[in-house]
């Protein structure tokens, strides 16, 4: 039997309003493609490019608990700020992030990453030093590659010591797009 | 045999929402079924963290739905003839042995036995799922088991 979209939406709202979810998520259109945006009661826990929602739900259930549900309302604020960022009107995100699954060095690096300002570039080595392990540039690369909340935690602003873009979990085109949006990179001719 | 892991609630909900709504409409009619639908899945959400495996989730969802429907009808004391009688729509459910074994038990005892011994839920969780106290859940399960033993002996 088909459940009407009103009935379906009503339950998804109620589940969040009753505080019964470990994770609420929604898919959100953006200039860099569809984003999977997930939040817990502590903040944004995941932003993912090109997500397979089913696989992400499995992963989030293992990390945060099995009550993972597509429920747009709790993600509204994060999605609104992402829209503003892409429109160029927001330079800083005013969002909590939930980094509970990150451990030790990874967490230290992500905390340093959060401080890299809009429109500025830094290097893997610099971040490694700020996180207390100056020789761990390669490990920083791994942390960037697994950044659970790209865009909000701006791993796109981290480049190689020669200025090359190096890599990006969402693909180098997206890294370039974000940096151009921020005026940190002149558009390619 | 490896236990089936509990799926993310999203998958459970997507798989069970159709059958649950169908059952609620048979039991309550179209309008009341909508309210009962939400209540069924909210109760399932409350009990969900305590599930230890992902088996028989259809049966679990339909059991909760049946109890929500039962509560709704008790509250409203519906006497209208066009609403189907709860006991007369006892359709076969897709889980085998425990279900067959408990088929003759009164509804609440059957659910309590099923959730206790099929799902290994605590009485508190069973109470949550069924909308009763944990003490009532415990009594229902033990009187269900007594009834099954008597039946076995006779």
Describe the structure.
The complex is a heterodimer of chains A (189) and B (154). Chain A has 189 residues and is α/β, with parallel strands linked by helices. Chain A folds into 2 domains: 5-87, Double Stranded RNA Binding Domain (2-Layer Sandwich), CATH 3.30.160.70; 104-181, Winged helix-like DNA-binding domain superfamily/Winged helix DNA-binding domain (Arc Repressor Mutant, subunit A, Orthogonal Bundle), CATH 1.10.10. Helix content of chain A is 39%, strand content 14%. In chain A, the strands form 2 sheets. In chain A, strands 3-2-1-4 form a 4-stranded mixed sheet. Chain A has a two-stranded parallel ribbon with strand order 5-6. In chain A, strand 2 and strand 3 form a beta hairpin. In chain A, helix 5 crosses helix 6 (137-145). Chain A is globular, with a radius of gyration of 17 Å. The N and C termini of chain A lie far apart (54 Å). In chain A, 37% of the residues are buried. The model of chain A has no long low-confidence stretch (mean pLDDT 95). By secondary structure, chain B is an all-alpha fold. Chain B has one domain (9-153): Butyryl-CoA Dehydrogenase, subunit A, domain 3, CATH 1.20.140. Helix content of chain B is 67%, strand content 0%. Chain B is built from 7 helices and no strands. In chain B, helix 1 runs antiparallel to helix 2 and helix 1 packs across helix 3. The longest helix of chain B has 20 residues, at 9-28. Chain B is globular and about 45 Å long. Chain B starts with 8 loop residues before the first helix and ends with a helix. At the A-B interface, helix 1, helix 2 and strand 4 of A face helix 1 and helix 2 of B.
